[in-house]
């Protein structure tokens, strides 16, 4: 039996032994979380947003009078991450190198703009603090989406290099054209959100919190593979189920613990108190 066949057999046996246990653990954690969080689909989405976002009302978009699960910046960031990951996966599912340096430079600028707008926006929480300009939700959404694209451009190749036995040794975002398409898709998503249609905002709300789960599941799945020294042994998508399930379990656990801690401190599912 060669190494690849041994790796494939090992993973298959591991999945058979661990899959049911992980499924049960995930189910128990998810059930407790579902029972203890606000009712309804958007209520559960609020609980996910509650774990990663301040959820300040005037810094968020609304469906009529109902606030979205996350602020404008976080909504944009997780939507951008989904767009970026989906684009790279559909185009080059196993490419594993970072974008070229010239594109990484632009991604670095986007990160600085995101950080600068966030810091300026934070200063405006304090009445007497100086601010460079008046922040608004349009800028929060645009810079957040840009940062989401940055995260996807870095996470996608790292994930592929961690999980697969063999990968495509090329960048998924390999030239200005592909980078331009990525930016265009992010802008389209932002324009749809800014359109303000309630149905579109409802879909954006759900996709943004799904983005939270996807990112956390990918990161925790990678950590699991590395810690147990079984990285670079996945041959096909079926074998990917186990680490993703473990990642999702840990993601739900993290969200639940943060939800519990924040609710314990504030006694509310609302935003952090503003000074």
Poorly predicted runs are none
Radius of gyration equals 20 Å
- The arrangement of helices and strands along the chain is HHEEHEHHEHHH
Work out the number of β strands. 4
> What characterizes the major β-sheet?
2 strands, antiparallel
Q: Measure the end-to-end span.
A: 65 Å
Count of individual helical segments: 8
Structural class: mainly alpha
Shape: globular
Please estimate the helix content. Answer: 55-70%
Give the overall average pLDDT: 88
Query: Strand order across the biggest sheet?
Result: 1-2
Number of domains: 1
Proportion of residues in β-strands: under 5%
What does this structure look like?
This protein has helices at 3-36, 41-52, 72-91, 101-123, 137-163, 176-195, 198-227, 241-266; strands spanning 62-63, 66-67, 95-97, 168-171. With 275 residues, it is mainly alpha-helical. The strands form two sheets. Strands 1-2 form a two-stranded antiparallel ribbon. The protein has a two-stranded parallel ribbon with strand order 3-4. A hairpin with a 2-residue loop joins β1 (62-63) and β2. α2 (41-52) packs across α7 (198-227), α3 (72-91) packs parallel to α5 (137-163) and α3 (72-91) packs across α7. The termini are far apart.
């Amino acid at each position: 039996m060669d190494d690849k066949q041994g790796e494939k057999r090992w993973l298959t046996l591991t999945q058979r032994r661990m899959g049911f246990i992980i499924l049960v653990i995930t189910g128990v954690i998810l059930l407790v979380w579902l029972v203890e969080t606000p009712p309804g689909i958007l209520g559960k989405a609020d609980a996910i947003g509650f774990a990663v976002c301040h959820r300040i009302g005037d810094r968020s978009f609304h469906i009529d009078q109902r606030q979205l699960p996350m602020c404008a910046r976080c909504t944009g960031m997780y939507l951008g991450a989904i767009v970026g990951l989906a684009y790279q996966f559909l185009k080059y599912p196993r490419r594993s190198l970072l974008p070229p340096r010239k594109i990484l430079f632009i991604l670095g600028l986007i990160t600085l703009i995101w950080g600068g707008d966030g810091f300026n926006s934070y200063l405006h929480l304090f009445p007497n603090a100086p601010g460079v300009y008046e922040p608004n939700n349009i800028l929060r959404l645009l810079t957040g989406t840009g940062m989401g694209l940055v995260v996807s451009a870095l996470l996608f190749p790292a994930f592929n290099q961690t999980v697969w036995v063999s990968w495509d040794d090329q960048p998924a975002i390999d030239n200005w054209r592909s980078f331009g398409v990525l930016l265009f898709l992010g802008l389209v998503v932002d324009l749809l959100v800014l359109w303000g249609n309630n149905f579109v905002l409802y879909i954006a709300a759900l996709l943004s919190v799904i983005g939270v789960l996807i990112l956390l599941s990918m990161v925790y799945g990678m950590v699991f593979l590395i810690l147990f020294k079984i990285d670079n042994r996945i041959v096909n998508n079926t074998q990917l189920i186990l680490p993703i399930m473990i990642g999702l379990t840990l993601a739900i656990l993290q969200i639940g613990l943060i939800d519990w801690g924040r609710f314990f401190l504030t006694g509310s599912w609302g935003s952090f108190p503003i000074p």
